[in-house]
Amino acid sequence: MEAVWGAVLSFLFVLATLSGYNIGGPSTSEQKEQIEKQQKEQKEQFEKDQKEWKEQLEKQQKEQQEKSEKKENSGKKQKSEQLDKSSTAKASKKKSDLCIDNCPDEWRLHH
To answer: Using CA atoms, how far apart are residues 88 and 108, in angstroms rounded to an integer?
Structure first.
């Protein structure tokens, strides 16, 4: 008896499962149009999002490029200023190192 009830229950389970897949029946033309419309809207939204993403990426790349150019230009200016300062410092040291008349003996030994 238990085997019969098991077979009946399994048969009902299979019927319930199969009938669940076919609840909506065939699609009507309105449903197809709605689906197509939704797909079209999703596609347009995707393309719009993709375009915005590309624009943001390009903007970020331009900003980074401008920053790097500014850094390079400021670095060149600082280097040229440092070279100018160092050359004047060297020149001043050279002038102070020179002893023309009546030099102390200490200077002659070091320089």
So the answer is: 24
